[in-house]
Amino acid sequence: MKKCDVSLFEWNSSLAMLIVFLGVDGSGKSTVINSFVNHISNEWSEIKYVHFRPTYLLRGNANDKPVTNPHEGKSRGLIMSLLKLLLFAIEYNYAFYVHYRKPDQLVVFDRYYYDILADPKRAKVSAPNWVVKIFERLIPTPDITFYLHASADVLYGRKQEIARDDLENILRNYSSMADTYNFYKISSETSIQVTLSEILSIYKDAKSDLG
Fold first, then answer.
1. Among 24-38, 67-81, 135-149, which is the least confidently predicted range?
2. Tens digits of per-residue pLDDT, 36-95?
3. Which of 45, 110, 116, 155 has the fewest Cβ atoms within 10 angstroms?
4. Segment 122-126 mean pLDDT
5. 145 Cβ partners below 8 Å, 6+ apart?
6. Domain ranges of the chain
7. Is the pTM for the entire model greater than 0.85?
8. Torsion angle, CA of 53/122/23/114, rounded to 10 degrees?
9. Which residues of 176-194 are buried (b: 16+ CB within 10 A; e: fewer)?
10. DSSP labels for 31-87?
11. How confident is the model at residue 102 (pLDDT cuts 50, 70, 90)?
């Protein structure tokens, strides 16, 4: 099973399974996640869906409308960015060690802390990359992380919510991070059936390893 080995907190998979889906807007995450959950829903007593981060301690965005301009607004200053990262680390660990401990429970994340490294503008964080990586070591490591990727041409053709230059930079960040952290790279330029088949194959192997 591919897992990132840089975190100080490796999640205890005997209690629950954690799967993360990463990718820019337009990569098909929502469609893939919905199809994936529908295929495996009868294998778990409970499935939790989380967008980006848990919200047990810190309130999430109450606006359920789709984000049409993810880079809108100013990033926070250094001090506020550091405070935000610290609160995120506390929130993630609280959720994992209090709420995500049930046996036979699956937790599915649409985005994760890793997204701050790939697209700090979206998270409104202005801290240096090395600082974000230090806090990343305080975040529990997923059992499986899927990175849904496609070319900039394909993604920009699907959605033009951010500048093309920003998109290309984010894709480079994701690709580098996927190589460093051993994420599973899944092409989203194929049909949903092909994409889902590849994901299910990896998932079944990983679930088998959990015993």
1. 67-81
2. 999 999 999 999 999 999 999 987 665 555 667 889 888 889 999 999 999 999 999 999
3. 45
4. 94
5. 2, 4, 19, 20, 21, 22, 112, 114, 181, 183, 184
6. 16-56+73-210
7. yes
8. -50
9. ebbeebebbebebeeeeee
10. HHHHHHHHHHGGG-SEEEEEESS--SSS------SPPS-TT-SPPP-HHHHHHHHHH
11. confident
Q: Are 2 and 183 in contact (CB under 8 A)?
A: yes
Q: Are 203 and 166 in contact (CB under 8 A)?
A: no
Q: How far apart are CA 138 and CA 14, in angstroms?
A: 20
CA pair distance 161, 4, nearest whole angstrom: 30
Please give the Cα distance from 99 to 97 (Å, whole number).
6
Q: Give 124's DSSP letter.
A: T
Three-class secondary structure of residue 110 per DSSP: strand
Phi and psi angles of residue 50, each rounded to the nearest 5 degrees, phi first: -130, 135
Q: What is the pLDDT of residue 6?
A: 39
Place of tokens 């920009």: 156
Range 16-56+73-210 classified under CATH 3.40.50.300: yes
**Quick one: three-class SS letters along 179-190?**
HHHCCEEEECCC
Token pair for residue 158?
Answer: 């699907």
